[in-house]
Amino acid sequence: MFYKGERTASIDALTKEGIFPITLTAKEGLALINGTQAMTAMGIVAYLEAEKLAYQSEMIAALTIEGLRGIIDAFDEDIHIARGYKEQIDVAKRMRELLVDSQLTTKQGEIRVQDAYSIRCIPQVHGATWQTLMYVKEKLEIEMNAATDNPLIFNDGEKVLSGGNFHGQPIAFAMDFLAIAIAELANISERRIERLVNPQLNDLPPFLSPQPGLQSGAMIMQYAAASLVSENKTLAHPASVDSIPSSANQEDHVSMGTIGSRHAYEIITNTRRVLSIEAICAMQAVEIRGREKMAQTTREFLQQGREFVPSITQDRVFSKDIQAMNDWLKKETFHFEKKQTRKIHS
Fold first, then answer.
1. DSSP single-letter state for residue 345
2. Rounded-to-integer distance, Cα 174 and Cα 166, Å
3. How would you write the pLDDT of the chain (346 residues) with one tens digit per residue?
4. Are the beta carbons of 302 and 287 closer than 8 angstroms?
5. Residue ranges of the domains in the chain?
6. CA dihedral of 89, 95, 100, 101, whole degrees rounded to 10
7. N or C: which end of the chain has fewer CB atoms below 10 A?
8. Is the bond leading into 151 cis (omega within 30 degrees of zero)?
9. CA-CA distance, 144 to 317, in Å (whole number)?
């Protein structure tokens, strides 16, 4: 295992922490590997990263709204209460809190009547992803506390029953749902990126370039985002709809949940890179608009983000910037409070 950042023999690391291995008794070794442990463990890792990414997507979207002078009225509480979904209401509330003191947002009719869907429908789309995350969390919590071995022994060995608790269908479905939900965060993020870089859709410099016509600016980053989103669409095909019999046709229907959990994690990895690209583009856009006009919370994000990705002053190898932003997002967690976020921390 890795102990304090160094590869260490497990027994040495455990001993240093005063933890001693348990001694397995009859059937316990098999029970640890004979059920849904692999797909559940992978699913838990995927869920934890997905939850963090969902919060980060809201912060980054708020930055984009400022960069595009988005209409804050779309996040009015009455709109979302009228729909009735708690998660949608919560996303709208967090967006209002993130942008509460921004001078870059606009009111309905001030510049335009309404924004494009990728801006206006953030609570509806991101909220639906949160609904899926809550479903996935519930299934993982049940599964990680479940007996998924076979056979199961009851009444101190008096009752031995063969059953099918090892079947991974509940987790397989959850992982397929998770994959689709996170893929949609990337999908809508890429559309916001397009609105940031396309001069026909905004009043910013074309492709956020410091020298339009001479320097490409963020043009190629949108290509990368589009490519990642397209890859996600193939990975989001549900693994659970497939089943290949094995064990002389005794195991004639299986969940493919482990494949689903791996695909979900790949989609999360791709989505983080798409959001990294949106963050880079949005930071450039708000700097053009004026840092002093930003909301306090988004300005703090910008200030910390600039420690990893400098402003675009000329064309460079942007893959390094995407990687740097990606690494920061993977490391950092954004915690939301009533009217502002706490300091972003590891």
1. B
2. 16
3. 999 999 999 999 999 999 998 889 888 888 888 899 999 999 999 999 999 999 999 999 999 999 999 999 999 999 999 999 999 999 999 999 999 999 999 999 999 999 999 999 999 999 999 999 999 999 999 999 999 999 999 998 899 999 999 999 999 999 999 999 999 999 999 999 999 999 999 999 999 999 999 999 999 999 999 999 999 999 999 999 999 998 899 889 999 999 999 999 999 999 999 999 999 999 999 999 999 999 999 999 999 999 999 999 999 999 999 999 999 999 987 554 444 444 433 3
4. yes
5. 36-148+162-241+251-331
6. -170
7. C
8. yes
9. 43
Q: How far apart are CA 77 and CA 94, in angstroms?
A: 11
Longest dimension (CA), the chain: 81
Dihedrals φ, ψ of 215, to 5°? -120, 140
Q: How far apart are alpha carbons 40 and 67 in whole angstroms?
A: 40
Whether the full predicted model's pTM is greater than 0.85, yes or no, is: yes
How many residues in total does the chain contain?
Answer: 346
Q: Which long-range contacts (CB under 8 A, 24 or more apart) does 334-342 make?
A: 334/52, 334/55, 334/56, 334/59, 336/55, 336/94, 336/97, 337/97, 338/97, 339/97, 339/100, 340/97, 340/100, 340/296, 340/297, 341/59, 341/98, 341/297, 341/300
CA distance 33 to 22: 16
Assigned fold of 36-148+162-241+251-331: Fumarase C; Chain A, domain 2 (1.20.200)
